[in-house]
Structure formats: structure tokens, C-alpha cells
Specification:
Elements (H helix, E strand, L loop, with lengths): L5 E10 L2 E5 L5 E6 L11 E6 L4 E6 L5 E5 L4 E6 L3 E7 L6 H13 L3 E7 L4 H10 L1 H5 L3 E4 L18 H10 L3 E5 L6 H8 L3 H11 L10 E7 L4 E5 L44 H6 L10 H18 L1
Parallel strand pairs: 3-5, 8-9, 8-11, 9-10, 11-13
Antiparallel strand pairs: 1-2, 1-4, 1-12, 2-3, 4-5, 6-7, 12-13
Length: 315
Amino acid sequence: MSQADLQSGLVVAGHGRHVMVETPEGQRVICHPRGKKSQAVVGDQVLWLASTDEGTIERVQDRRNLFYRQDDIRTKSFAANLDRVLILIAAEPEFSESQLTRALIAAQEAQIQPIIALNKSDLTELFARAWERLDPYRRMGYTVLPLSLKPRDANGVAAYDASDAATNLLVQTLQGKTTLVLGPSGSGKSTLINLLVPGAQVLTGEISTALNSGKHTTTSTNLYWVNRSEGTALIDSPGFQEFGLHHIDPMHLAKLMPDLQPWIKNCRFYNCTHLHEPDCGVMAAVKSTDLPAPVSASRYKIYADLFAELSQRRY
């Protein structure tokens, strides 16, 4: 094998050890790893070697970033070379603030810009309560968008109002970017992808069949082109329900939470855990009488619980 035999490509789908690689010309080829373990994930630029009708991944090119989660048992890599992580939640079912925070911390650690979108704004009362719960995140500087996504009708026509400012802002934010879409069941993730990528469900089925994933379509990760010429792509990946952060040192946790990070400089001790030490800047911010407090009680509890979880794993 010579260097001239290798072809470049983009990993656009993955299931288990098998991936689908798209060539610069748009051709898609099933590829397998060289060796027992697959290192390539969706979003990777790779060099591959063609065989009769498939190929072998020979090299994964250097990544800009990798978004992943890690628990006691395994590491789950979502995607590589991302510009955005869109965390889609809904007014109903009620979203988990802990899971939202975990995804935001993972994005911060990987230096990927997160966007929060709250769906089902048509559920007025439920949406108002959910929107209020997101107030600390808006104050932290996160982009938080309201949405009301509806499935396409029988004729395939998008049901949302194209003049809706929030939807248009989301589309503009995604333009020219590769975005991973995360969201719990019922948040509207599939609806969003099918609205922006007509035929996405059919394509998913075809990819699932090609990669021999059969009925386990939801365990695969897929990249969809919203606009290939502009480089606008959405990546759909499961795995939001359980989001381990065992790859993060608990002593670095506060630095990855934008509402806690500014107050670390006020701590007396350089190795402060922000849990029990005297003259702790973070704890002082939590106890502040300002309205609203610089650090909310709910966010601080999430920090304390995460610190305990990560410390138990490490020590």
C-alpha cells in the first residue's frame, strides 16, 4: 500500500465498528477499522483504502475537538470536529437541569459553543415555568432560544411559521456550521432534523440497513447535510439520558461552570473545593443577598453532587 492508494473522506454515519465515509465527490462507502477497535467517529476526516465494494480506515486525521461522555463502564464518543452543540429540551416533558448542566460542561471542556433551545412554546403555562428555570443560563451568557416545532404535514410541508424570529435565528446560527443535536426523548429532536432535512428518516433507514444495524437505528449516529455547498450539517446522536463526566477532574469542575468560575479568585485557598472551606468565594456568591444571587442554589447543588460523584470515582 502506498500513500497514493489512500483516499480522503468524511465519516457521516457510525454504528458499532462500522462507519460510512463520504468522499469529496459525495459518494458514500462502508468502511471498517484496521484492527479490532474502531477509532473513527462521525465528523472525522479520514484516509481510507478501497477494496472490492467497501473500504478500510487507515488513518484518522487530527481533530479540532471531540465531544464525548464517560461513565464507570465505557466512553461514548458523540462526534468530532464540531462547531456547535445544540441542546434541545422542551417545556413538556420537564427537562433535567442536571443533564443539561452535564452537557454544557462537556461542551465547555471540549471548547465547543453550546446553544440551548426550549421547544413547545405553544404550551403557554408550562413553557413559562421552563423558561424561568433557564434564567440562570441566560444570565451566564448562553444563547437560549424559544421554539415551537411541529412535524411536517401529510404533504411534507413544514408546520412552523417561517417568519418566526426564533426559528430563523436558530437556522442562521447553524448556517455554515457542523452542529451536534442532543436532546432527551420527547424534546422534538427528530422533528427538528426532519424539518431542516426533508427525507432524513428515509436516509436513516437506508444507512441503518447498509451498516447492518437493523432495528437498532436509534443507536447509530448520523450526519445530515442541511446545505452541503455551505457546509451546514446536523449530527444526530443518542445518549442524552445518561451523561457521565468521569473524564473531568473534580478540581476543575467549577472552572467549567460559567456562574461559578468568576468567584474562584475570591477563595482563600488555591485548592478550594468550594464545599466547606472558610472564605470561599463561590460559597459566598451562593449565599449572596443580591436578587438574583450570582450563583443559584439549584446550580450549586448540581455542582456539589457532581463533585461528589467524580471524587468517588477518582479517590
